[in-house]
Amino acid sequence: MVPNANTRHFLLKAKQRDLIAAAGGIERAAMVCSYGKSTVGRWANADSTELMPLDAMFALEEETGRFDMSEAIITARGRRLAEVETTAANGNIMTAHAETVVRMGELMTEGALAFADGELTPSESAQIDRSLAKLNNAIGEYRKVLAGAKAAGGLKVVGE
Q1: Which of 13, 83, 96, 101 lies in the 20 to 30 Å Cα band around 141?
Q2: Residue 128: which H helix or E strand, with range?
């Protein structure tokens, strides 16, 4: 089996790169999870087949407060990771909405630039994937805020 032919492998590699970036990059991630920079560099390299071990994943997820890798693993098994969060405020909902719209605009721009010449290079594919990851995170945050608004019985978006 060629690892790069595996869709789950690509998803895990993308989430792994996002987690390393969220931790502050390769050097900072290496300090957090107590692995060498070259090892963490291989984890962040899209062309490397290496996936991070669970102890590193747990350390980085705890450090960043993001559980992208755990969620990807659970999703690959046909399950969902759910959080219970019941707080929402007008500022949070407007910020979440704006962030989602901005990230969608960035994705559309990346796609337009990549498709303009009628070809999609591996580099362009990786850039679109990064934009998709940012959009996915923004959507996730937006959904959390909306769940909080629903649990609170709704919000007034416009002042009186």
Answers
A1: 13
A2: helix 122-151
Q: Which tens digits make up the pLDDT trace of 37-57? A: 999 999 999 888 899 999 999
SS3 (DSSP) at 34: coil
Asked if residue 116 lies in contact with residue 50, where contact means CB atoms within 8 angstroms, the answer is no
Residue 65 DSSP code: T
Distance in angstroms (rounded) separating the CA atoms of residues 115 and 94: 32
Which residue type sits at 107?
L
Q: What is the pLDDT of residues 67-111, one digit of tens each?
A: 888 888 888 777 876 655 444 555 688 889 999 999 999 999 999
Give SS3 for 51: coil
Quick check: 21 and 14 in contact, CB under 8 A?
A: no
**Long-range residue pairs from 29-32, CB within 8 A, at least 24 positions apart, any chain:** 29/60, 32/59, 32/60, 32/63
Tokens matching residue 68: 């992208």
Tokens of 118: 């009628």
Overall pTM > 0.85: no
What's the token pair of residue 20? Answer: 């390393």
List the alpha helices (DSSP H) in 23-89. 26-33, 37-44, 54-64, 68-76
d(CA 135, CA 100): 6
CA distance 110 to 84: 33
